[in-house]
Amino acid sequence: MQKQEEEMVREEEDIRKEEKEPPLMALNHVSRLCRNVKMSIEFYTKVLGFVLVERPQALDVKGAWLFNYGVGIHLVESKENDQRFPSDTPHLDPHNNHISFQCEDLEAMEKKLKEKDVKYMKRSVDAEDGRTIDQIFFNDPDGFMVEICNCENLKLVPADSLSKLKLPMDRHTPPVETNCNYHDAAL
Questions:
Q1: Of 104, 147, 152, 177, which residue is the catalytic one?
Q2: What is the mean pLDDT of residues 56-73?
Q3: Can you tell me the distance from the alpha carbon of 148 to that of 101, in angstroms, rounded to the nearest whole number?
Q4: Is 147 assigned a catalytic role?
Q5: Is residue 78 left, alpha or beta, with left meaning phi > 0 and alpha meaning psi from -120 to 50?
Q6: Using one digit for the tens of pLDDT, what is the confidence trace for 71-114?
Q7: Residue 99, pLDDT score
Q8: What is the DSSP code (8-state) at residue 18?
Q9: Whole-number Å distance between alpha carbons of 84 and 31
Q10: Which residues make Cβ contacts (< 8 Å) with residue 69, sequence separation at least 6?
């Protein structure tokens, strides 16, 4: 009986080894619906420091691509009367859907938000190990929430196996062409 159990365990292990994990590397981009592409470009470049990059001309929707910090934001202009925007935009709830960016200087970010007259909410979360995570929440021009944080203060502890954690060090950023003249083909 014990031999049968051992054989079954080995078969299960073999099956797990044969199952391949998805060949993912990193977050590539976040797509954001917007009412006005130019206004959203201004917000994401001037408030958050993203850079406008070329996008394929074959795309048949009005939009723009932005990139920085190893992640892209793809803006897609909505059709008139689109109902897919957040409805309660003045209310900031940290538990709502949002995109979060790591920040090395929250005071400078807060100053920039004040300069740009962006309404925001601050909060701090005390972690179990005594560290504090500071967060700033605000909305983009279309009501989608953005978080700025010093989340590196929070230790990342895998709940499962550490061997499953993938940390690509050399491939997560797309290649960047540095010596080209950008023309305003995004719109």
A1: 147
A2: 91
A3: 5
A4: yes
A5: beta
A6: 999 999 998 777 788 876 778 888 888 999 999 899 999 999 99
A7: 92
A8: H
A9: 13
A10: 49, 50, 101, 102
